[in-house]
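From the pipeline queue, job 12 of 40. The input is one protein chain; the requested action is below.

Action: predict structure.
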Amino acid sequence: NGVRLTLGGSNYFTGIGIDVTEHRRNEAEIIQAKEYFELMFNTSPDAAVVTELKTGTIINVNDGFIRLSGFVREEVIGNESLQLDLLENPSDRKMIINMLIEKDFCSDVEVVFRRKDGSLFTGLLSARKISLNENQFVISYIHDISIRKMMEEALRSSEKKYRELTENISDVLWTTDLDLNTTYIRPSIDKLTANK
């Protein structure tokens, strides 16, 4: 807004100018940071979820969450995670929230989740508490480790079968390394050497 003045027969125009360059630069940086965050959030192959800390209301999910859970975005946004029955053990949410309140983050917490179809999967959950406009939110990433868990179980089962086999045969059994150092001798060797 300016004011027109006439002084001594000459016309003048007065006004105040405000340099908004810094303000525009800050706006541009905020928009760029938002786009960068959205790109990282949506590009992650892991499930990503943003929830309100207090209520557990889901604010946003990425495509990784959609693939992993079987839900569509419209089914989860605005609903509480407990209402959707996403956790096999609902007390896990309280444990995670307690960690977030205490340390502002948690990392690689093993949790069993439930998909829309009711099937279960094990995931490692990492989360961080964030504050925006005086509201507290949680951004969580869930990495599906179901295949790893199946492989660990198969290995345990194989080891158990091998142990049962070696402990119950009457033959002498031993293993060596590549330098022919003995690495295992079946416990029943004691029985054989004690009888002599």
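Job complete. The two ends are 113 Å apart (CA to CA).
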